[in-house]
Write the structure tokens for this entry.
Amino acid sequence: MAEAPAMQKRDAAYWRKLKEEMKEAAMSLGIDKIGVASADPFAELKERLREHRELGYESGFEEPDLDKRTNPALLFDEPRSIIAIAVAYPSKLKNPPVSEPGKRRGILSRSAWGEDYHRVLNSRLERLTAWLAERVPDARGLSMVDTGALSDRAVAERAGLGWSGKNSLMITPELGSWVYLGEMITNLPLPPDQPVEDGCGECTRCLDACPTGALVGPGQLNAQKCVSFLTQTKGTLEEWQMEKIGNRLYGCDTCQIVCPVNRGIDIRRHEELEPDPEIVKPLLRPLLTMGNREFKEKFGAGGSRFSATR
Ligand code: SF4
Ligand code: SF4
């Protein structure tokens, strides 16, 4: 599709200014961090994904087509940039209920504490779309959260939101890894941001703390061994797997809890992401007689370290 004439009339200075204004407006749109990536193919990522697959490390939730996962042009007509967004979620419980003898409690991953994050992120991307459309009526965009083909983490990294940690998660310098990610491929030639320097250094705490050795190397995750994945698979678990899972009901936060960058970070800017302690740390015994549907209705687990786009 040829570019709209109105779009062609705008010069580089216009797009630079628009990007600055968009960054200034982000907070008012409910977005905690925003950046812009080029829409070039993610060639290096494709190689890494291929290796990952060959080693049998995939979770099975991924988009199977590696070209679609790494080439924005296969998803969107004439992409010119990708806008990456991050929304921070709380990492601490106020007044957490404690386990008592005979009344043990489970725990949900922090990424599943609030409302389903797909809904939350999509609402932010809708606000951003409306904001852009007010300024550029011929703007087009394709928004994705988790279930799109692109890797949220690779886009966020290229857009300078943070670096890809040894725990294989996106780490933003200001919000840590307690963030949900989403992106929008656009026809707007916004200038790209610079990637952030890797901040892990010599640290290996996440690799050392992982209960199953799922982090097989820096930034390399064997999904099949990850507790987060195990809590989401159907079927019967083996004895050793149950031992490692412990009281985790959904997801696993160990490699985030031990991360020094995350220390002291607890962002609570979004009402819909506030946890209900009784839901995120529920009594275990009543769950034994609860059906799948009731479990989903009550807990509505909306996130984990796994997504279709890792
Ligand atoms: S989520 Fe848990 S099991 Fe998975 S890599 Fe992190 S620490 Fe290991
Ligand atoms: S624990 Fe250390 S190595 Fe792991 S992601 Fe955090 S800073 Fe990087």
Q: What stands out?
A: The chain has one domain: 9-299. The chain has a mean pLDDT of 92. Residues 9-299 form one domain. The pocket of iron/sulfur cluster (ligand 1) is lined by residues 167, 210-212, 214-215, 221, 226-228, 252, 254-255, 305 (CB under 6 Å).
